[in-house]
Structures are given as structure tokens and as C-alpha cells.
């Protein structure tokens, strides 16, 4: 069995760069986005504090865009399930924080969500290949988690290539997602490496026209992938 990348690249705007006082309007402004990326930070796993479950519950009612919750928190084994129960489409936990990531994935799926596993830029993929068999998404961090607007760390593309190969050869069945520093200057390299879903915060909500930024990023990623598939390997 071989799996091709999802037919069209997916764009997940991160509301970390949106106006927190106008979240429903900001979501409506990117209604064409594939997922809405929600960065949950607890000031322990990362040195920043953002939003939590009540905001996700409110957002779920305010938008039809599937919510992609990225939990940068300690003890996700205890807290992640609440986000699935709140109706998040995909709930991603960090492998560096999870105590029993296989049980966690099973619980998330049982609660009706997709299960995502994230790796920080310097966390290797190889020790987690068997764990990833239980997951629907792999979120490769291309910045140190904690803040938007940071520079893209290019060496993580090696992990994207590895994950893409594992998916294409049927060893894993998951979506490859990247998060951090994605913008018009970096998205092509990420697309060529095999990313399916691109999180973009400042490049979308920092733009004059967020909806236009989403469609331009999607087109740009699509063209790069096409170049790869018609021109040889990655
Ligand atoms: C960082 C967050 C990202 C962040 C990305 O810890 O996980 O989702 O919002 O922001 P940009 O796209 O500005 O790097
Ligand atoms: Zn994120």
C-alpha cells in the first residue's frame, strides 16, 4: 500500500497571531482554511500562557472550521481528552510530555477526535515510529514551541522526508503537518519535503488579507509539490 500526500495541501492558520478579543471574526476571515490551529500553552511545558478548554468550547460553536488543537502542556495524558470531548477535530500532544502516548491516542480516538503527536525541533523521529502507528497526524515543529513569529528551522525537513517515506511505503498512515515559521519564503521547501498540512500564524493573521494569504500559501505549496511529483524524488 502506498499513500500519496493529501490531494491538495492543507492550510491551518494559527490563531496565536489573531486578535484574541475578536476570535469569531478572525475565524470567519479565514473560512476557507482547512483547519483552524489552536495553540494551547500552560506556562510549564513552554514559557508562555495562552488559552484553554473554555475558549476551545466557545470557538467550536463560533466556527465550522475543524479545530486543530496543539497542546503545549504538561500531563497531556490527563488533559487532552477534554479537547476531544469539546469537539476538536484533531488533538495533538507532545511526545516529550506524554507518559503513555499509545494509550493517549486510543483515548483521543475513542472520544471521536483524530490523534496527533508533535515533536520539537531537536526530538528525533526514529524512537517513535511504532508509537506513530497509533496516530493520525505527526506535527513536526519547525520552531521551538512557545511563540509565533519565529524563524524557520530548516533541519527539521529531514524528519519530514523520513515521515513522508514511511507514509508512502505504507509503514505509517498519517498526515504530516509542520508548524512554525511557515511563510511564502519557506513553504516551498516544506512542500517539497512532503508536508501535507501547513500551520501558519503570522503569515496569515499578520497579512492585510488573511483569506488571500491562505489561498496564496495553498497554491504555492501545491505548485512545489507538483514540481516534485513531475520532476523526480524528494
Ligand atoms: C508556536 C506555535 C505555532 C505558532 C506559529 O509554538 O505552535 O503554531 O503560532 O506561528 P508562526 O506561523 O508565526 O511561526
Ligand atoms: Zn502550534
Automatic annotation (TrEMBL):
Organism: Pseudonocardia eucalypti
Positions with a binding annotation for a divalent metal cation: 37, 39, 70, 179
Keywords associated with the record: Carbohydrate metabolism, Isomerase, Metal-binding
UniProt entry tagged with the keyword Isomerase: yes
Family annotation (NCBIfam families): PRK05581.1-4, rpe
Cofactor note: Binds 1 divalent metal cation per subunit.
Function: Catalyzes the reversible epimerization of D-ribulose 5-phosphate to D-xylulose 5-phosphate.
Catalytic activity: D-ribulose 5-phosphate = D-xylulose 5-phosphate
Family the entry assigns: Belongs to the ribulose-phosphate 3-epimerase family.
Enzyme class per UniProt: isomerase
Pathway: Carbohydrate degradation
Pfam families in the cross-refs: Ribul_P_3_epim
Binding site for substrate: 14, 70, 146-149, 179-181, 201-202
Protein name stated in the entry: Ribulose-phosphate 3-epimerase
Domain of life: Bacteria
Cofactor: Fe(2+); a divalent metal cation; Zn(2+); Co(2+)
EC number assigned by the record: 5.1.3.1
Transmembrane segments: none
Upper lineage: Bacteria, Bacillati, Actinomycetota, Actinomycetes, Pseudonocardiales
InterPro entries assigned: Aldolase_TIM, Ribul_P_3_epim, Ribul_P_3_epim-like, RibuloseP-bd_barrel
Amino acid at each position: 500500500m502506498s499513500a500519496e500526500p493529501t490531494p491538495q495541501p492543507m492550510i491551518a492558520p494559527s490563531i496565536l497571531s489573531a486578535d484574541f478579543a475578536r476570535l469569531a471574526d478572525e475565524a470567519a476571515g479565514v473560512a476557507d482554511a482547512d483547519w483552524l490551529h489552536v495553540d494551547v500553552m500552560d506556562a510549564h511545558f513552554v514559557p508562555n500562557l495562552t488559552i484553554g478548554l473554555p475558549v476551545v468550547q466557545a470557538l467550536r460553536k463560533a466556527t465550522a472550521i475543524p479545530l486543530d488543537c496543539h497542546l503545549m502542556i504538561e500531563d497531556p495524558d490527563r488533559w487532552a481528552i477534554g479537547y476531544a470531548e469539546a469537539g476538536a477535530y484533531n488533538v495533538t500532544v507532545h511526545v516529550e510530555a506524554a507518559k503513555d502516548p499509545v494509550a493517549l491516542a486510543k483515548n483521543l480516538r475513542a472520544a471521536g477526535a483524530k490523534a496527533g503527536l508533535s515533536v520539537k525541533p531537536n526530538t528525533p523521529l526514529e524512537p517513535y515510529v511504532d508509537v506513530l502507528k497509533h496516530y493520525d497526524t505527526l506535527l513536526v515543529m519547525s520552531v521551538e514551541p512557545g511563540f509565533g513569529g519565529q524563524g524557520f528551522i530548516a533541519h527539521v525537513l529531514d524528519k519530514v522526508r523520513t515521515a513522508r517515506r514511511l507514509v508512502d511505503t505504507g509503514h505509517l498512515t498519517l498526515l504530516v503537518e509542520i508548524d512554525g515559521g511557515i511563510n511564502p519564503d519557506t513553504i516551498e521547501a516544506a512542500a517539497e519535503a512532503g508536508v501535507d498540512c501547513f500551520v501558519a500564524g503570522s503569515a496569515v493573521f499578520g497579512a492585510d488579507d488573511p483569506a488571500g494569504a491562505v489561498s496564496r500559501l495553498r497554491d504555492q505549496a501545491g505548485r512545489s509539490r507538483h514540481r516534485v511529483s513531475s520532476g523526480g524524488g524528494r
